[in-house]
Structure formats: structure tokens, C-alpha cells
């Protein structure tokens, strides 16, 4: 197989881990919603946080063994869409991504933005 064809046939790690994360989140959320009869919001939040935690654990393992890594952008995206507690727990539990300054700055920026959005939502819902 020509080298360029082989390279183009590879799946982007971004696409791969977005698809895996999305499917796992959907599976867990549907299981919690229909199986355990959880409210949709709680089912989603539990699912995205479990998925984010698992992605951190997988990435730590891959970092140790030299395998295919989960891109930082994917980890941040999962935190941004509701997985911040799972990301925080994954960082602490697996001792992963805790020292890299640029990663931590963006992570805490996402957390701060989420706090502002929640505060604004609470404020606007009461007035």
C-alpha cells in the first residue's frame, strides 16, 4: 500500500475519541434514563462525568505504555460539556495532567466559565 494512502486511511485520534466518548456517554445516559428512571439531566451529567473519568484513566495508561493518546482538546471538550467533576477526579485519581501549566489554566478557565454560567442561570431564573 502506498505510504500516502496508508496515512490517509488512519482515523484521526480526535474523531476516534470524540466518537468513543459520545457513544459511551449516550449509552450510559440512556441506561440511567430508561433503566434506572433517572431524570434526563442527571442521567446525562452522570454519564458525561463517568466517560470523562474513563478517558483520563485511559490516557494515563496510554501515556505509561506509549500507546495512542487521548488528545487534550478531547479531554477539555468533555469537561466543558459537563464533565468537569469527572475531569477533576481523573486528574487526582490517576495523577494525570496535574503539572502541565497550559492544560491546568484551560481546565480552570472552563471551570470558572461554568460557575459564571450557573450563577447567571440561577440569577436570571429568580428575577
Automatic annotation (TrEMBL):
Keyword vocabulary terms for this entry: Membrane, Transmembrane, Transmembrane helix
InterPro entries, per the entry: DUF1294 (IPR010718)
Pfam families in the cross-refs: DUF1294
PROSITE patterns to which the protein is assigned, alphabetical: PROKAR_LIPOPROTEIN
Membrane listed as a keyword: yes
Keyword Zinc-finger: no
TM regions (residue ranges): 16-35, 41-58, 106-124
N-terminal signal peptide: none
Name by which UniProt lists this protein: DUF1294 domain-containing protein
